């Protein structure tokens, strides 16, 4: 997997070495020699990852990272900070300003490449959701951009068969308000994740009785857990297991002895990223719903209706498909006399009455201004005629007061067509129902007509 990587370091020897290592793996590399140049390149070049040295003059790595994460153009770009400073407090400081990882010089290149692959893979996934979300926002289908939320109340599952490790992790997460559950085995972890949703799994690679990597694999394979971030905790000699865990989809790791502040911040960052991904996915789902539904009535729109009807015809319905075309009688007079807000109120009342009187497997769509279509699979002409009269009479009995003390009678005309199990297209069914509707209109309105076979 190729990617664009921005190296930020004021020492040319360091940048040349990293550039050679990454170039050998076919990554596209660009170099910045100070924080200001890094900010400009990150915004204009849009790399997939930033490798950021901490110790730089004027604008150090911490401030550069903070600015990257505050800029909407660059906040989504993963940042790995690299430094000769090895104190836990320095790592926590880097994570607090938004870094995704913190590697110590001299850099272990196997570890670096594992982190690069993992973070690039995650960024590519988030980029897909983000671009779709931006398109939806441009169309006015979703709300404003997402700001980092609190993680208080998030759920974490701690998997370890050592009580001391569980308690330490639980205490650290509690300081962020993260609610944690415990599991001492693979079976217990799988039972818990099947029973309730989690926002993070903290997995010890030192389980004594089982292979924790098998659990990591199973969590990534299961539909309900494949999006949950995994944070691995390992002993210093377990480097190969850490790298294997990343191949299986782990997101982050810590080496014992665990610094509680570092665990807390890494857990918080992973959960925030999950919330961001969840929000992007929800925005897209909302955008799709908005694109396929009518905002006034909540019914499907014409685009969805045509796809659904064609799908039903393609699947074959042995008892046929019935289509009703429903038009509100004299609706223009309501808008002209009382205005469009009252007209909208009338349409919502009619829509609700129709919704309550169709079967759960029927579909209803708003076809036009005051036109609705009901699709009834597995329905013949006799059943369709009875259903049409039921809907027509319900609207005729609907109380509607456009203003206090004034009642206005609403009515609809309905045209019905049926496939009778014969080969037919969606367009033919709708056209036949439309012709039957015009018959009902010409015959005096407030009635239903069945199209000729």
TrEMBL record:
Keywords: Phosphoprotein. GO terms for cellular component: plasma membrane. It catalyses: 2 GTP = 3',3'-c-di-GMP + 2 diphosphate. Residues 4-120, 155-271 form the Response regulatory domain. The modification 4-aspartylphosphate is found at residue 53. One of its GO terms (biological process) is negative regulation of bacterial-type flagellum-dependent cell motility. The keyword Phosphoprotein applies. GO terms for molecular function: diguanylate cyclase activity. It comes from the Bacteria. Residues 319-453 form the GGDEF domain. Its EC number is 2.7.7.65. The keyword Phosphoprotein applies. It is an enzyme of class 2 (transferase). NCBIfam families: GGDEF, PRK09581.1. This is diguanylate cyclase.
């Amino acid at each position: 997997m190729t990617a664009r990587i921005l190296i930020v370091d004021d020492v040319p020897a360091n940048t040349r070495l990293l550039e050679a290592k990454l170039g050998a793996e076919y990554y596209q590399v660009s170099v910045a020699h100070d924080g200001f140049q890094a900010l400009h390149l990150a915004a204009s070049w849009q790399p997939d990852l930033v490798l950021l040295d901490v110790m730089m003059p004027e604008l150090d790595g911490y401030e550069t990272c903070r600015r990257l994460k505050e800029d909407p153009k660059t906040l989504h770009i993963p940042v790995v900070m690299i430094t000769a400073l090895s104190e836990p407090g320095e790592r926590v400081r880097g994570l607090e300003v938004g870094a995704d990882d913190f590697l110590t010089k001299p850099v272990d290149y196997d570890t670096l490449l594992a982190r690069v692959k993992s973070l690039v893979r995650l960024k590519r996934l988030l980029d897909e959701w983000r671009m779709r979300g931006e398109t939806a926002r441009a169309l006015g289908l979703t709300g404003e951009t997402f700001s980092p939320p609190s993680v208080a109340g998030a759920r974490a599952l701690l998997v370890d068969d050592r009580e001391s490790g569980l308690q330490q992790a639980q205490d650290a997460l509690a300081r962020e308000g993260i609610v944690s559950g415990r599991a001492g085995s693979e079976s217990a972890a799988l039972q818990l994740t099947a029973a309730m949703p989690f926002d993070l799994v903290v997995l010890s690679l030192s389980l004594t009785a089982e292979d924790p990597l098998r659990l990591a694999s199973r969590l990534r394979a299961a539909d309900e857990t494949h999006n949950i971030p995994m944070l691995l905790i390992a002993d210093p000699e377990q480097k190969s297991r850490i790298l294997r865990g990343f191949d299986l989809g782990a997101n982050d790791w810590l080496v014992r002895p665990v610094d509680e502040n570092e665990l807390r911040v890494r857990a918080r960052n992973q959960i925030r990223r999950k919330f961001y991904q969840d929000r992007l996915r929800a925005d897209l789902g909302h955008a799709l719903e908005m694109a396929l539904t009518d905002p006034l009535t909540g019914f499907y729109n014409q685009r969805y209706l045509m796809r659904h009807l064609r799908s039903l015809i393609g699947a074959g319905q042995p008892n046929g498909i019935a289509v009703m075309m429903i038009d509100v009688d004299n609706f223009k007079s309501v808008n002209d006399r009382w205005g469009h807000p009252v007209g909208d109120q009338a349409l919502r009342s009619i829509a609700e009455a129709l919704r309550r009187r169709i079967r759960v497997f029927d579909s209803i769509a708003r076809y036009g201004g005051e036109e609705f279509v009901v699709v009834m699979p597995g329905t013949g002409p006799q059943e369709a005629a009875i259903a049409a009269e039921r809907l027509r009479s319900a609207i005729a009995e609907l109380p509607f007061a456009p203003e206090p003390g004034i009642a206005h009678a609403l009515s609809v005309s309905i045209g019905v067509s049926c496939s009778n199990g014969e080969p037919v297209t969606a367009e033919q069914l709708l056209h036949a129902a439309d012709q039957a509707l015009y018959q009902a209109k010409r015959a005096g309105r407030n009635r239903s007509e069945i199209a000729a076979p």
